[in-house]
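Good morning,

Both structures are done.
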Amino acid sequence: MGVLATARVFTLVLNYRHTDDTLRCVASVRRSTFRDQRLVVIDNDATRETTAALEAGLPATTILAVRENLGYAGGNNVGIRRALERDADFVWLLNPDVIVEPDTLERLMATAQARPDAGIVGSRGLYHRRRPPTIWFNGGVIDWARGGATSHRDDGLADAVVPAEGPFSVDYATGAAMLVRREVFEDVGLLPESWFLYFEETEFNVLARRAGWEVLLEPRSRVSHDKRSTGRLPAPYYVYYFVRNRLRFGATYSDLALDEVDADLERWVEAWRRKVSDREPGWLPTYERLVAAARADARAGVQGRRDDLDALVRGAEATTP
């Protein structure tokens, strides 16, 4: 494709406990047709065991061990700082639970070359192992009339029926797989760490667009995503951080008041409430505690990591963040 032969690309994979995911992701990265990339693995909340497993499975790879849980943005920022210090032109952020195709990065870089106003370029995401191949993400949509409600374009549609034509403009690229031009970090800063988990990449994309950068989705660039946060039951961290940060995001960036954003969020809360009630009614009190804590914290302006989620799940008395 003749893409930016002299560009310095740093590929960052953020590990968090599941080293098997990270090793699988890195194996797919190493099959890339775009060869001139420098791989960095950040071991977030590292233990001796996780770092040893990464070192054994990834010889001759830069591994940055972080001894506390910094969250998505904080962990990635450790790698982004390293990349920028070493004169990266682009940073490719990957969650460890994605698998990239050999030409994924090459297609992203071709789009970046053709569109110098594109600060962020994302890939089409497919559900891992779902047959027929099914779209998980084909560009992020922000509904400002609903107080910043977010959704994935074409989620659930068969990949074969959605033309891979583009690239095209989107409200945001998923943080699971996005290519970021160096100048975006210079214009708007690193990934915002106050969210800890969820909505940090949404805010980052919003800030990039407001700074004049285009955010594009390149549907010919593909990744598959093996999600861990939702399944039969939602993970406790997903419930808490999604609810709290959805309220924060809407109240910060939309024209709606927090109460109005909360009223819109209730449809999400109720949908999961019904699923939990049907699938495992004994877990319903836990779900309600997590939602209530998230709502209260959003109203109190709580940011960052909340350290007593395990206590909330157990029903023990929680501490004030």
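Second structure follows.
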Amino acid sequence: MWEDIYKENKRLDIIFMSKYKEDSKIYEKNCIELMNEISEFANETKCFKYWSIKKMNKEKALEEYADVITMSLSFFTILNVKLEIIPHTDTIDVLYLLNKLYSNVSLLYENKSDKLVKQIFSDVLYLGDLFNFSDKEKYDACYKKMKIIEERLNSDY
């Protein structure tokens, strides 16, 4: 299943990178973008908002989650890493896992490591499990997001 998502995301990444190949800071910007997408997802889930009584909007959370998946997959393309899902961080604590993702993305900024790319992606997939997103929901959200990305690439977004 993730191989199909990866291939489509890679196709879009190649278009994106050819369109913006003059930008010498794409890698650094993508590290910040991944942290931003993780933050937008966390914000949508409200998992850290102990002061809020509002419930998570699952549809909006899935949209943000798809952004995290597609952005994390981009590092496979950028660093030419073979897609591989490795054991995820062993925790059931969402807050710990989110903080671990931030930490690992910061490490990835400093160290372009295949292992970190795989760890981040595996942890992102597991994060969706912790929020009880089904594989079908994850898959559908990713394809919906990639369709939007393709439309943006074909416009002056």
